[in-house]
Write a structure and sequence with these properties.
The protein has about 70 residues and is α+β, with helices and mostly antiparallel strands. The protein has two helices and four strands; from the N terminus they run βαββαβ.
């Protein structure tokens, strides 16, 4: 599971999901919640196979904070 706090801006979700696709990472599910302020959202991803280093590389440029847990 990957949980990222991101800016609530047009294109953030598209950029992340397109980057996962390009890296061959399958998204099993995703959800969004309000973030810690009006200008942020929390995105939670469940990924089929997870190369943690690749996931960090994709998410870090847009994440204010990041939590990755393997299940």
């Amino acid at each position: 599971r990957v949980e990222a706090l991101v800016d609530d801006k047009v294109g953030v979700m598209a950029n992340v999901t397109n980057s996962f696709t390009a890296a061959g990472i399958n998204i099993l599910s995703l959800g969004t919640l309000d973030g810690t302020s009006d200008d942020t959202k929390v995105i939670t991803f469940k990924l089929q196979t997870m190369d943690e280093a690749k996931v960090r590389e994709i998410i870090t440029p847009v994440a204010r904070s990041l939590d990755i847990r393997t299940v």
